[in-house]
Amino acid sequence: MATTFAALIFRPAEIPDRALSQGFAVALGGWGVASPRLFIAPLPGVPGYSAAFYSSGEAAGGGDDELDHLSELFEDELSPPVAVLDAAAELGHPGATLFALVFSEDVVHDDGWCFEASGFVRHFVREGEEGLEAGVEAPDRSDVVELDVDLPEGATAAEERDATDRAIRPHRGSTFLAAELGAPVLGALMGALFAPERRVAVRLVEPGPGSIADEVARLNRVLRRDSGRGAPASSPPVRGVAPPATYTAFARAYDWADPADPEDLYRELAIGAIEGTLRFLREDELLGHEREPGWEAAAARQLYPIARLSGSALGGGAAAPHRAIVALGADGEQLWVVRGGTSAAPAGPTFGELLRYLSLGWSRRSDAEEDLIGALMLRARLRSLGG
Fold it and tell me: Would you say 189 and 51 are in contact if contact means Cβ atoms under 8 Å apart?
């Protein structure tokens, strides 16, 4: 079977797993890839480097559709390497260098990249519409030429393969990467591809109580609030549903009593199905759900109410029409929009993604953060529509 893959080549000391996870999630924000896969393996023969192999998860083993997806994704302006470098810089590694290769044996496709904060260089050979073509790209140049293969008259299939290989070898992306890294790259990647060490989940924001506490701390910093001010001693169960551990972490870290913003309203939100004005529920409001008409159905689904969603008119607050409840699922990650206590629909963002969206929405954003908030909104929209 012909092998098709896309890989990032990196130093683990420069590119942590979190940068890979977030970077790929940002790059895939608008692609509608339901189950992306990202596997990590050390790169044999290239000391100090590892490889991250990406696939869409749609078709194991690759194929034309997978190659088309990989090519388009890595040629996109916001490609995985660009987004991973942005995430690495955000995590304290601004000087990282990242290499990438999109390769296929099924057709001639060997596309290598070197990315740094200052720009990129790309060398590739591929099958174009008129035949084999090779190219070199950088921010200030783009050269593509057709390749001629010198075939002797009556050449055998083996002789044709050899002549083609001689013609394309100097232009291969893997040849370029081998020169940059000082070691044969393609063979090392082939070996690493079939010896994955671990899998990294592709996520915009990590799940779990620790991550939620970090996101609340980020939001408090943006809003210049005090962590844990006015926090309840504990969060009560609602209709027999105990608060998920992520909500407990949130409640302990959130600023519930900011004197500069007593209404504590997040207005004009638009992320997935969470549209309008949001206010996190206080302890007395949570206890009030013991009497909320129709909440038995939501409780039967193990949903825990965390916020009230109302109309988007500025100043409308809790009195605005079309009110709904944002509830947290039993997994502590998925959010639901509940209307009338009975109708529950996926909200789109996860709990952590909602908190990151709030912090980004109230801060001056860098280009990388603009990419992240855009990916948050796109991914949430797809999920809320069932994508």
Answer: yes
Count how many residues are written for the chain: 387
Integer Cα distance of 187 and 189 in angstroms: 5
Task: Quick: pLDDT tens for 86-107.
Answer: 999 988 999 999 999 999 988 8
pLDDT in tens, 19-57: 999 999 999 987 878 789 999 999 999 999 999 999 998
Asked if 94 contacts 116 with a C-beta cutoff of 8 angstroms, the reply is: no
Is 230 in a helix, a strand, or coil? Answer: coil
CA neighbor of 307 nearest in space, from 365, 257, 256: 256
Alpha-carbon separation of residue 87 from 17, 18, 78, 80, 119 (angstroms)? 10, 8, 12, 10, 16
pTM given for the model: 0.84
Q: Is 59 helix (H, G, I), strand (E, B) or coil?
A: coil
CA distances from 373 to 45, 201, 214 (A): 39, 19, 17
Q: How many helices (H) and strands (E) does the chain have?
A: 12, 15
